[in-house]
Design brief:
With 338 residues, the protein is of the alpha+beta class. 60% of the residues lie in helices and 13% in strands.
Length: 338
């Protein structure tokens, strides 16, 4: 273990975590006990600032059940993989980046639940929802990483969306900035702050709770709003095309639609043009929901946050025009009632 880690981590917590794993006969490389300790410490610090309601002790107790092994492997095309209870980290990433990427994988592991033979992970029910899950996981990892390092969150900047030159995400995330922006749109639309949204990702019923929030808003506002399932399905295809692009190269998806396969085996035709279309539709539908679900004062108050989270100039313009039209209606209403 590096000398700096010896000084910085809480030895008591480190020993308790290590003992819990040893009692279950699970053997984890020592540096990952250090990183798990730092993760739990970061949750405690974040809680002290009021940034989370997660209970660090509860999370620490879950670790040996959620993580059975951690190995490093060379030649992965991603930074890490979490498969049920096994975390595989890419052996070829820099040590200083490993902590952030491990925090991402550990978040996945902590948010994975086996229910009725189906693997739920945060907002994913095994069928769809992984798009939001990746956004929430990376968001959580970056918040905890920066807290752990004693740093402020990096400022948001415009970031290219992989394979989509017309879309840019305004984000501080170093990975999955698009997913983070869409998650913000969901949070703003449902009047949640990001801390609540990220905490929800750890809930065993995260998917159901988010869907119920959506559905109850649809019930109150009535018409014209996309269903939760429809949005999740579109975003899943956006996510699948991104994942395919990462493994085979985005050039292979630039032309006519090609046959692709979802993890559940179903086949579909997809390319970057389809991804652009689905992403644009989803953002447009989220803009509509934001206006339909909320009163005019809230819409006015959060309008700029929504504009920033949208990823094309046209979507931002549409949003501004819709709010301004709503303002006119609102004024007419006030005049009429005078
Ligand atoms: Zn991930």
């Amino acid at each position: 273990m590096a000398e700096t880690n010896e000084r910085l981590i809480n030895r008591g917590l480190y020993n308790e975590i290590k003992t819990m794993f040893e009692e279950k006969n699970r053997t984890i490389p020592d540096k990952y006990y250090v990183l798990m300790t730092e993760y739990i410490e970061a949750v405690q610090k974040l809680r002290d600032f009021g940034g989370t309601d997660l209970d660090p002790v509860e999370l620490a107790m879950m670790l040996p059940d959620k993580v059975h092994s951690i190995v490093e492997m060379s030649g992965l095309y991603v930074y890490g993989i979490t498969d049920q209870n096994k975390i595989t980290m890419n052996a070829n990433i820099d040590e200083d980046k490993k902590k952030l990427y491990f925090f991402h994988e550990l978040t996945h592991a902590l948010q994975t639940w086996e229910k009725g033979g189906v693997e739920y992970c945060s907002f994913s029910n095994g069928e769809n929802g992984m798009f939001l899950t990746e956004g929430a996981t990376q968001y959580t990892a970056e918040v905890l990483y920066n807290v752990s390092e004693g740093k402020e969150l990096p400022p948001k900047t415009l970031k290219a969306v992989r394979g989509q030159p017309n879309h840019q995400a305004y984000s501080f995330l170093s990975e999955y900035p698009l997913n983070g922006s869409i998650l913000e749109l969901f949070a703003i639309t449902l009047r949640m702050n990001m801390g609540e949204m990220l905490d929800l990702g750890f809930h065993k019923d995260a998917r159901r709770i988010l869907q119920e929030k959506w559905d109850s808003n649809v019930m109150l506002s009535g018409n014209n709003v996309a269903s939760f399932e429809e949005l999740m399905q579109k975003l899943e295809t956006v996510y699948e095309i991104d994942k395919t692009g990462l493994s085979v190269g985005f050039q292979a998806l630039a032309g006519e639609p090609v046959p692709l396969r979802r993890p559940n085996g179903t086949r579909y035709y997809g390319n970057l043009a389809l991804q652009d279309k689905l992403l644009t539709q989803t953002e447009q539908e989220l803009s509509v929901a934001f206006i339909e679900f909320n009163d005019y004062d809230y819409v006015k108050q959060r309008q700029h946050d929504v504009e920033f989270a949208l990823t094309t100039p046209k979507l931002k313009t549409n949003m501004r025009m819709a709010v301004s039209a709503l303002g006119n209606i609102n004024n007419i209403d006030k005049t009429a009632s005078r």
